[in-house]
């Protein structure tokens, strides 16, 4: 057995000659002395080299995208960028949705204090909470502004722009307010009774017109107010027209001042007859329409 093993080992070292002859002249062109061990080492080294080159190409070049099972080398970066863009769009959409919800709440006559809202991750308590422990400290600038405003409004029946503080004067010079409908004011602006507009009685089938140019942000039917349309204007003004019999505009339409947007009616459960309930809001707060429009 030992002799047989030595003979097998010796065969690995046996020399062989690889000779290449010319086919016609039998002239020797090339010869190479080889052994089985040399052939084994050469084949093994070549295989290792090929494996290394293939692994390098797959790991560090873009050719691996064409190999089944591998993805784009920049895919993770693109996914991250798309995720950030989606988050930004979601924040913008959430802000826009909150804005339109507030507009809808104004048009439907719902109270802001009756609902719990989330602001920067914290809940705003419902109305009825006790605030008697809060002490408000007014600055000297605020006292002077209050005194100027009260002095300007105290003795003026009509709103004179020369007597209004600068901030409000800039807000009221957005444009000339167009009269929505000619008629008689039967119910005036009274926030204490939660009547945030004026009721105008006019002729039957009279056209309701937009008081300023703007974009229709709400145009729909409500149970209490009937056909309601709301328009967003420049300068943070929003006008609301309720109890219409027919709406002539849809959400998203752009209207000019004086353009018909509806027909006077008595739709809705809270209507007491054909009239227009007209509201005017500035910076999300109701203002007296008679301070801006002559009916």
The number of distinct helices, counting runs of at least 4 residues, comes to 5
The count of DSSP E runs of length 2 or more, i.e. the number of strands, is 14
Low-confidence stretches: 113-131, 156-164
Q: What percentage of residues falls in helices of 4 or more residues?
A: 25-40%
Strand content: 25-35%
Work out the radius of gyration: 42 Å
Task: Please name the CATH architecture of the largest domain.
Answer: Distorted Sandwich
- Overall structural class, as computed from helix and strand content, comes to alpha+beta
End-to-end separation in angstroms reads 125 Å
- Succession of helices and strands: HEEHHEEHHEEEEEEEEEE
Shape: rod-shaped
Number of self-contained structural domains: 4
Reported by name, the CATH topology of the largest domain is Glucose Permease (Domain IIA)
Brief descriptors of the model:
alpha+beta, 5 helices, ten-stranded antiparallel β-sheet, two-stranded antiparallel ribbon, 295 residues, rod-shaped
What does the model show?
The longest helix has 33 residues. The chain is of the alpha+beta class and 295 residues long. The protein has five helices and 14 strands. About 9% of the residues have low confidence. The strands form three sheets. Strands 5, 6, 7, 8, 9, 10, 11, 12, 13 and 14 form a ten-stranded antiparallel beta sheet that branches. The chain has four domains: 61 residues, no CATH class; 33 residues; 27 residues, no CATH class; 116 residues, Glucose Permease (Domain IIA) (Distorted Sandwich), CATH 2.70.70. The chain is rod-shaped and about 125 Å long. It is 31% helix and 26% strand.
């Amino acid at each position: 057995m030992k002799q047989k093993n030595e003979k097998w080992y010796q065969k690995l070292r046996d020399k062989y000659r690889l000779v290449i002859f010319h086919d016609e002249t039998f002239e020797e062109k090339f010869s190479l002395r080889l052994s089985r061990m040399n052939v084994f080492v050469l084949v093994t080294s070549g295989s290792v080299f090929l494996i290394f080159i293939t692994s390098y190409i797959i790991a560090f070049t873009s050719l691996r995208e064409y190999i089944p099972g591998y993805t784009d080398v920049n895919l993770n970066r693109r996914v991250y960028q798309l995720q950030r863009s989606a988050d930004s769009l979601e924040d913008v959409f959430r802000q826009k949705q909150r804005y339109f919800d507030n507009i809808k709440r104004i048009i439907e006559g719902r109270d802001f204090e009756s609902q719990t809202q989330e602001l920067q991750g914290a809940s705003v308590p419902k109305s009825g909470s006790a605030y008697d422990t809060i002490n408000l400290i007014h600055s000297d600038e605020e006292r002077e502004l209050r005194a100027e405003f009260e002095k300007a409004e105290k003795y003026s029946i009509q709103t004179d722009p020369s007597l209004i503080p600068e901030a409000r004067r800039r807000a009221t010079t957005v444009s000339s307010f167009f009269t929505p409908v000619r008629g008689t004011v039967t119910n005036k602006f009274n926030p204490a009774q939660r009547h945030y507009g004026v009721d105008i009685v006019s002729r039957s089938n009279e056209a309701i017109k937009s008081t300023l140019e703007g974009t229709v942000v709400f145009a729909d039917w409500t149970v209490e107010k009937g056909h309601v349309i709301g328009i967003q204007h420049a300068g943070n003004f929003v006008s609301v027209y309720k109890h219409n019999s027919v709406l002539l505009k849809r959400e998203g339409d752009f209207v000019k001042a004086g353009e018909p947007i509806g027909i006077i009616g008595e739709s809705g459960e809270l209507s007491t007859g054909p009239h227009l309930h007209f509201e005017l809001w500035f910076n999300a707060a109701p203002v007296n329409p008679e301070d801006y429009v002559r009916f």
